[in-house]
Write a structure and sequence with these properties.
Number of strands: 19
Order of helices and strands: EEHEHEEEEEEHHEHHEEEEHEHEEEE
Largest sheet: 9 strands, mixed
Structural class: alpha+beta
Helix content: 25-40%
Strand content: 25-35%
Radius of gyration: 19 Å
């Protein structure tokens, strides 16, 4: 296993010894993951089954994306392996599922087929993002939290949460610290409040990680500050400028596997047009302390 540091943030593990990815030193991988937060495995013989086996070595508590914001296709009848190609436009940097309390602590991506051009996955370190914020913005985020508000009809929430029973919906929302209002026609209003900046798991750093950028990009009506004040355009301009400044683009190669700390590293993707692009994701927790 020969690690080499790519520009900015991603730690690459390149197969130079023609080894099986399943034979790599697990303790070394865990140590690198704890240090860098993003590992890219490249040059190994992989397929969807090897991706499943390899990610199983380091992971537990796989999620099936119930409650997720996008539509995702199940791969090989395994509800924990999902396609990310719901649409082809850009998705700005974000933490996965940060519009609810219960998030996957770790993410895995697998490149089944890269786009002929564009479609790069983007990553950045949320600790660095916080460090780049202006003092006034840091103070603003100390004072205010985000409030996500989403209205759904009965069919929409049943599809999103993969349930039919409104009592189950109430339990899920309570578990996610989400306020749910249910109307006579069984439509609902969801409200969830969260911090923009969180402490790192080691407690030594502040981490900018959330779903602010893509929410304001794709559906700005769902987002306000917790005092119901609007999010200013000048603030979004500052955040988008920082994002472009510190983003690392991952230009996919077929068979690549990416391992991400979802408590520290934000990810997104560049727009693409190639409909044969196939990137899969698994949502889980580490099977080790980190």
């Amino acid at each position: 296993m020969t690690p080499s540091i790519s520009e900015k943030v991603v730690q690459q593990i390149i197969n130079q010894d023609h080894k099986s990815i399943l034979e790599l030193d697990q303790a070394e991988i865990i140590n690198l993951f704890k240090e860098y937060g993003v590992l890219l495995f490249r040059g190994f013989t992989t397929d969807t089954e090897i991706f499943r086996e390899f990610s199983n070595l380091f992971s537990t508590d796989f999620l099936d994306y119930a409650g997720g914001a996008f539509n995702r296709k199940v791969i090989n009848n395994d509800k924990t392996i999902l396609s990310v190609n719901d649409f082809q436009t850009e998705i700005k940097l974000h933490g996965e599922m940060y519009y609810q309390k219960n998030i996957p602590l770790m993410l895995w991506f697998f490149c089944a087929n890269p786009a002929a051009s564009d479609g790069q996955t983007t990553v950045c370190d949320g600790r660095q993002f916080f460090a780049e914020l202006s003092n006034s913005t840091k103070e603003l985020f100390n004072q205010k939290k985000l409030k996500f508000r989403a209205k759904m009809n009965q069919e929409q929430w049943q599809q999103k949460y993969k349930i039919d029973d409104v009592n189950q919906l109430k339990e899920i929302c309570a578990d996610n610290n989400t306020l749910v209002t249910i109307y006579e026609d069984q439509s609902i209003l969801l409200e969830y409040v969260c911090s923009v900046v969180i402490p790192s798991r080691c407690g030594k750093h502040r981490v900018f990680i959330n779903s602010l950028l893509p929410a304001m990009q794709l559906n700005p009506d769902v987002l306000r500050f917790d005092d119901d004040s609007p999010i200013p355009d000048e603030l979004m301009a500052e955040l988008n400028e920082i994002a472009e400044k510190i983003t690392t683009n991952i230009c996919w190669q077929k068979g690549d596997i990416l391992m991400i700390d979802n408590t520290r590293i934000m990810h997104g993707r560049r727009a693409f047009t190639d409909e044969t692009r196939e990137i899969y994701i698994r949502l889980c927790s580490p099977a080790f302390d980190f």
